[in-house]
Specification:
Keywords: Membrane, Transmembrane, Transmembrane helix. The chain is elongated, with a radius of gyration of 16 Å. Helices cover about 50% and strands about 10% of the residues. The protein has a domain of about 45 residues. It starts with a helix and ends in a 12-residue tail after the last strand. It has a two-stranded antiparallel ribbon. It is mainly α.
Length: about 60
């Protein structure tokens, strides 16, 4: 893991700790789970890639 990747990962973890009010263990687990599910990825250059999920709503035009 590159230094830039480590730095980006740490920034995301600390942000989650702040906004969710969780400890570092839980925040690290959240990031790991998101990575395992393909929702989040850190590149060697330190970029953060986030998969965008869309919901399609069907309307009933009666």
């Amino acid at each position: 893991m590159s230094k830039l990747e480590q730095s980006s990962r740490y920034i995301v973890i600390t942000h989650l700790m702040f906004i969710m009010g969780i400890d570092i263990v839980k925040a690290t687990a959240v990031v790991a789970e998101m990575e395992q599910n393909g929702l989040l990825r850190f590149t060697e250059k330190g970029n953060l890639e986030i998969k965008e999920l869309e919901t399609s709503y069907e309307t009933n035009n009666c």
